[in-house]
Amino acid sequence: MKVFWKALTKESCRVAIRIGAFSDDLASEFLPACALAAEAGLDGLAVRNVGGRNVVEAGMAELAGIRSQARDHGLVVASVGSQFGREFYVDSDEGQRAAEQTLRSALIVADVLQTELIRIFALWLPGQEPLETWSRRPVAEEYLERVADRLRPSVDLARRAGVVLMVELEGASYAGTVAEAELLLAALDSPAVALCWDVCNGWWSGEDPVADGLPRALTLPVVDVQTKDVPAQPDRPRTPTFGRAVTTEGDVGYPAIVPALVTSGYQGWFTAERVHHPAKPEHDLALQQATLADIARLRQTIFASGKGITSSV
């Protein structure tokens, strides 16, 4: 597996694996999310939505507060969960301008929060928002160069700013599977772009996580592995449902995937994800408890894989 390109030049290179979660899966406000994350033994939090809106919309004072709250709890900000790529269609000049403005805002947020990772999506597929349609994949030859051309100015901007755009698998985008992300990363050919492997999203997009996703991921620059779990259909064990399960109790394949990544020398984040937004977990403690259960099981699985976690980042 290729190693996160900038980590080798920084003090953080001593940290082999770090464990995080999305702050809004713990609480809609950042401070209580920090308290829960620290108590759960996390190394950091990915910041996506704070106070009911995406973090790229936050003001400087709020961002400074997020930075200090994370530091006060012994946490780092793992990544900025921007919405870059959503509703950015390949034939839209206006969509490209809006996405690039989102990225400029995200770069400011990343600088203030002292993170080098910004989550993006690989443009949007018309009419493919419902989960049930995600396995209907486009033909790469018909879109790859056009999608890469749309993304190249943003990738260059990220490179000059010293950050990495991590392309998250999303079935409503052109990178729904690791195989599709592999083609896109090769076309972009830049150290400023890497893979955020949302394993479940890849399965929902029709890719077997263990048989197909894992071997490809082991050859790619992966900086984050997101670990929500779902059960398979009772009569079709290779086909996912859209329900939820505690990590490793579903059928995504984490008992095989996590040890394989750890023993391969993976240096990056494992991020527990539940996607409660816009629900507020503090108003429904069952949501909070589900996220905490995922975190506990993820940590247990990583430790059982034979590698300790260094939390001094």
Main attributes of the structure:
disordered C terminus; 38% helix; disordered N terminus; alpha/beta; eight-stranded parallel sheet; 313 residues
Structure write-up:
The chain has 313 residues and is an alpha/beta fold. The protein has nine helices and twelve strands. β6 (117-120), α4 (144-161) and β7 form a beta-alpha-beta unit. Mean pLDDT is 93; it is low at 1-15 and 307-313.
Summarize the structure.
By secondary structure, the chain is an alpha/beta fold. It is 38% helix and 16% strand. It contains 9 helices and 12 strands.
Tally of separate helices: 9
Give, in spatial order, the strands making up the sheet with the most strands: 5-2-1-12-9-8-7-6
The major beta sheet can be summarized as: 8 strands, parallel
Mean pLDDT across every amino acid position: 93
> Based on the structure, what is the oligomeric state of the protein chains?
single chain
List the helices and strands and how they pair.
Elements: E1 17-22, H1 30-39, E2 44-47, E3 49-50, E4 53-54, H2 60-72, E5 76-80, H3 93-113, E6 117-120, H4 144-161, E7 164-168, H5 178-188, E8 193-198, H6 199-204, H7 209-217, E9 222-226, E10 232-233, E11 236-240, H8 254-264, E12 268-272, H9 285-304
Parallel strand pairs: 1-2, 1-12, 2-5, 6-7, 7-8, 8-9, 9-12
Antiparallel strand pairs: 3-4, 10-11
